Amino acid sequence: MSQSTTNTAAMAEEWSNPLRDPRDLRLPRIAGPCGIVIFGVTGDLSRKKLLPAIYDLANRGLLPPSFGLTGFARRDWSEDEFRAFVRENVESHCRTPFRESTWKQLAAGIRFVQGTFDDPEAFARLSDTVSQLDRERGTRGNHAFYMSVPPRAFPIVSRQLADCGLAKSEDDAWRRVIIEKPFGHDLDSARELDRVVSEVFDPSSVFRIDHYLGKETVQNLLALRFANAMYEPIWNANYVDHVQITMAEDIGVAGRAGYYDGIGAARDVIQNHLLQLLALTAMEEPVSFSAADLTAEKTKVLSAVKLPKDLAAHTARGQYAAGWQGSHEVAGYLDEKGIDPNSTTETYAAIRLDVDTRRWAGVPFYLRCGKRLGKRVTEIAVVFKRAPHLPFESTATRELGKNAIVIRVQPDEGVTIRFGAKVPGGTSMEVRDVSMDFSYGRSFTESSPEAYERLILDVLLGDPPLFPTTREVELSWEILDPIEEFWSTLGQPQPYRSGTWGPAEADEMLARDGRQWRMP
Ligand code: BG6
User: Fold this and answer.
1) How many CB atoms lie within 10 A of CB 251?
2) Best exposed site among 4, 72, 400, 401 by fewest CB in 10 Å?
């Protein structure tokens, strides 16, 4: 094998490795000539996350100078008005400093197409705009289409892209489509969406976004487990008592009522983010970090997930009532603007799942998520069994909990290990819980890129390991569908006061197993 072939192979491998640091100066991952078209460009996600992430990528020098950014929307805007809209949102939400020079270069490639999804002429104009970018800016026919739109719009946008000739990759030019969650609202609708999308796009050019997989700390879970010798030997049913995965938010649904009502907490984040976290926590070591090898291991875990026999005892739902978010008094869910006053949508969900494998036999995985909880925190806590024997008087270990490794996904990203230590002084051997802490903020000087920066760049590079496959999406719906069906027979979820840690039902659920939720 020639030296250059070896180098190319090594580069390809490194590029597809999610543990590789994208800031690595030896091998910066810079996108080649290309452009992105955003559908739903005026929406919340685009304004707060996508446009700023594109700017941040440009600012970090990871986009080509010729990059094209096209917005497609109903508003009757001139190109300059659209540019002003992008600038305003970038300035308000960018992570890296706002620099006129970066902005000028990005702004030169910004285009706007006015139209609705059912209008073939608008798509003909889009096709002209894209060709013009190819000619004038040298984007060379390489374009990504970001569907930041409700799932019901995927089929029509996909068909229009096919009809105007934008959907198919050619030998020397790629076309890719990025699909935002939710991918369906149950297994059947997800399959139907997949059928429609795959009629138009080649499966290898479809990138389903689960932005949790783009978070540095989620990738760090793989580093923690597989780059170290000390965790894997105890990462199993011999030592682990149970696992708690928590995604708590302090915000309510304000501004997103239309999307959220009828969907609820479990479809919104358990079906995707939390089940992906479970899969990464429970999976075996992949042969490599290629997309195929990673997904093979995640798929095995999702296939091995078993629902509790008694759904009433091992699931819980809640809906926030009026209360406090920090020092602000806030309204209950049913009083939020745009919410049906009789809505039975849950804003809190907790479920127990088991992973039926040799490694995890008898170890429950408790998943919980909710809006308007005590604080914003996402964490994975691996809680260990007690030491088999404590050679101390029982009074000396009164305050000793179980050992735990807590991966703090956000905020305050890092890892905490909880263990018992001797209380200093005194004559008896008194033991109490203490923490050992790794914090990203203290150990590294650079701030972590936003998940969307990483994921958008991966799409432009055609690098798929951090995107869930159709099979993973289907398996996740297979897990959730029976729970949703059971809940649909129950009526109103149990109310909980805003600013607290959820409904009493959730505490009772764990108490039945002789356990309790961690206080993050
Ligand atoms: C989204 C959900 O996927 O994740 C939202 O639809 C939620 O309801 C959001 O607020 C939370 O994301 P993050 O990155 O702030 O944890």
Assistant:
1) 13
2) 4
Distance CA(249)–CA(346), nearest Å, equals 14
pLDDT, position 27:
59
Cα(78) to centroid of ligand 1, in Å? 32
pLDDT tier, 15 (very low <50, low <70, confident <90, very high otherwise): very low
Residues 487-503 have a mean pLDDT of: 97
172 and 298 together in one domain: no
Q: What is the pLDDT of residues 442-480, one digit of tens each?
A: 888 777 899 999 999 999 999 999 999 999 999 999 999
Beta bridge partner(s), residue 361: none
Q: Which atom of ligand 1 is nearest to the CA of 273?
A: 3
Q: Is residue 196 part of a domain?
A: no
Compute, in angstroms, the gap from residue 302 CA to the centroid of ligand 1.
22
Residue 339: which domain range? 214-511
* Angle between helical axes of 100-108 and 79-93 (0-180°, round to 10): 140
User: How much is the pLDDT for 2?
Assistant: 40
Domain count, the chain: 2
Q: What integer is the mean pLDDT of 112-127?
A: 97
Q: Indicate which CATH number applies to the domain containing 27.
A: 3.40.50.720
Distance CA 376, CA 411 (A): 7
Q: Say yes or no: 237 and 163 in one domain.
A: no
pLDDT tens digits along 108-119: 999 999 999 999
Q: If you take atom 3 of ligand 1, which residue's CA is the nearest one?
A: 269
Q: Is 508 annotated as a binding residue?
A: no
Whether residues 93 and 227 fall in one domain:
no
| Backbone phi, psi, residue 501, to 5° | -105, 30
Residue at which a domain ends, from 129, 162, 180: 180
| Residues labelled as active-site residues | 273
The closest-lying atom of ligand 1 relative to the alpha carbon of residue 253 is: 8
Q: Which amino acid is at 129?
A: T
Q: How many whole angstroms from 377 Cα to the centroid of ligand 1?
A: 11
Q: Is 215 annotated as a binding residue?
A: yes
93 is in an annotated binding site: no
Task: Take atom 9 of ligand 1 and give the residue whose Cα is closest.
Answer: 269
**Any bridge partners for residue 495, and if so which?**
319
Q: Are 410 and 451 in contact (CB under 8 A)?
A: no
Taking the centre of ligand 1 as the mean of its atom positions, its distance from the CA of residue 33, in whole angstroms, is 31
- What is the average pLDDT value for the chain, to the nearest integer? 92
Task: Please indicate whether residue 268, judged by its CB atom, sits closer than 6 Å to ligand 1.
Answer: yes
